[in-house]
Design a protein that fits this description.
This protein has a domain of 269 residues. The chain is mostly helical. 66% of the residues lie in helices and 0% in strands. α5 runs parallel beside α8. The protein starts with a helix and ends in a 13-residue tail after the last helix.
Length: 397
């Protein structure tokens, strides 16, 4: 992997992304694309939910039948169902967006997410030992061409926001622990990604950050309840069974889109019980390694990268667009490599993570899931490579 080859791949992919997005809009009919899906596909459920909240019915997004009826009223009777599977917190984002017409709302959502993501990656690199990377501008090309960006832009998804929050939290963890806790707490809009964060924070005894994160979640819950009423919470809890059975266990969206150990077992026709067992074993295994790794003397960049990857590995509910959380991991791995020298296969590990969102869905659709195995291999590389778990001394911080 040379600098010139990396630039060539990034430029080629960016051209392909631009052509694909241009084709979607050029062949659209009203708000629907050439296949009858709303432009921005998954953003349609965010917009429909936001409209319901604005019109005084914030509980209806949690009822699949009512949510589907609203989506069809907005986008036509042939519109497929896009479920709302978020906690009530996310209505605080959906409602303001729904105050705009659909296309301006979609564009605003995408541009805001992209700007937040790029700003967070820039700040993360600038604060690290390899700030000189920023002068080359290569980081911007690689960040824009990262395949998960394209997946999120075409699906109207929120992975860009997740990557920005995670990057920001890691950026401020040492310097402003309370702000880091706030950013970790805001990730509660996708609670499945909160399993490994307390493990890492407890390992280093970062109690102020933990307290700040808990307080942020409580304040977020208070604001949400004040804005939309108490009824949204029982509605959300009731909707969890539908999400668990229809989306996760039965693979309503397609197991090839879900990049987890659970989905791998189900993709290969394994029973649900076995899928849960395999996922549970992996979650415990990853959590244990992460805990001891964060107690080691490994570099902060390596610890942060390991946390980003572990965040995705630990949950059964991880779609390919959620692999945006790998962006800060790749940036931190690159910063660590340029500052301290790349270990053998270090560039390969970072490059494989960068390509994973491009390969994950088509390979899994052919019956060969590669997304989760690539993430697991990169995680093991981080925690077992010299200066990591095996060779490191306990941290005194």
């Amino acid at each position: 992997m040379t600098r010139e080859r990396a630039r060539l791949w990034c430029a080629a992919l960016l051209l392909a992304y631009a052509a694909a997005i241009g084709w979607l809009f050029a062949t659209a009919h009203g708000l629907a694309d050439y296949q009858g899906r709303p432009l921005g596909s998954d953003f349609s459920d965010i917009y429909a939910a936001g409209l319901s909240a604005l019109h005084g019915d914030p509980s209806s997004p949690f009822d699949p039948a009512r949510q589907f009826a609203h989506e069809q009223a907005l986008f036509g009777n042939t519109t497929p169902f896009y479920g709302w599977h978020y906690p009530p917190f996310f209505l605080l984002v959906a409602a303001p967006l729904a105050a705009l017409p659909y296309i301006p709302a979609l564009v605003a959502w995408q541009l805001a997410g992209l700007a937040a993501y790029l700003a967070a990656i820039f700040a993360l690199l600038r604060s690290g030992p390899a700030a000189g990377l920023l002068r080359r501008r290569d980081w911007l090309l690689a960040a824009l061409a990262f395949p998960a960006v394209f997946v999120n832009l075409t699906h109207g998804q929120n992975g860009l926001l997740t990557a920005a929050l995670l990057s920001g939290a890691l950026l401020f963890l040492d310097r402003r622990p309370l702000l880091a806790g706030l950013l970790f707490g805001l990730m509660a809009y996708k609670p499945q990604f909160g399993l490994m964060i307390p493990v890492a924070l407890i390992a280093e005894g970062r109690w102020r950050t933990i307290a700040s994160g808990v307080l942020a979640i409580l304040l977020l819950a208070l604001i949400t309840t004040s804005a939309f009423g108490l009824q949204v919470w029982p509605a959300f809890l009731h909707s969890l069974s539908f999400t668990r059975m229809a989306v996760l266990e039965d693979g309503g969206a397609g197991f090839f889109k879900i990049q987890s150990a659970f989905a791998l077992v189900r993709l290969w026709n394994g029973p649900v019980v076995l899928a849960y067992a395999v996922q549970a074993l992996l979650t415990v295994f990853v959590g244990a390694l992460l805990f001891f790794f964060w107690r080691s003397a490994a570099s902060y960049e390596r610890k942060g990268a390991a946390l980003c990857i572990a965040t995705l590995l630990a949950t059964p509910y991880c779609f390919d667009y959620d692999m945006m959380a790998l962006a800060p991991a790749i940036a931190l791995m690159a910063a660590d490599g340029f500052a301290r020298g790349f270990a053998p296969y270090g560039k390969l590990a970072a490059s494989a993570l960068w390509l994973a969102p491009l390969l994950a869905r088509p390979f899994a659709d052919a019956g060969v899931p590669v997304g989760m195995p690539i993430m697991l291999a990169a995680f093991l590389f981080l925690v077992r490579e010299p200066n990591g778990l095996i060779a490191a001394e306990p941290s005194r911080s």
